[in-house]
User: Fold this.
Amino acid sequence: MGLLRSLKTARRGANKAATDARKAVDELRDLRLRLLGERDDILGRPLPLVEAQDAAAQAVQREADRALSDINMTPLRRPADGRTPRLDLGERDVAALAFAANAEAISDLIRAQVADKYQGGPEPMAAPDRDAEIARLDKELLSVELAEEGVLRQLEGSGFAMARRVDADARALLAHDDELK
Assistant:
């Protein structure tokens, strides 16, 4: 009778340990979701206004340069009929010239629209700061993944099974036991 009682006590203790381990896995998974949300928030932040406006101005200038380079200048250099040079402009060429001639005004217009979009939006973040924050979050996410895998392996070692997430980080799944926390 004493042996059965001690087995039941040991079983209760093992079940409690497994329940605690499962709660720890759930907490780690919740932490992972919070970190992923924070990562998404960081990635969703816009560049600082000045950088965005400069990028827009550079894009307009590139388009203006491309528009000018696409116009066929051959009839000006070598007239086909031997007559005076002429410029044959189609509707697209005229639009390209108008765009190129007004590139600065178009750039100013886009700069103003970009500035309007920044009003009341998320706080801008410079690219180096964003990269550093993403690297920090990725490191923390891997740490959480390693901890989760460690708890899952402990559960399996104790004879309890808990399903792994389908999207579990392969680095954690393939990590050596010494790397797990």
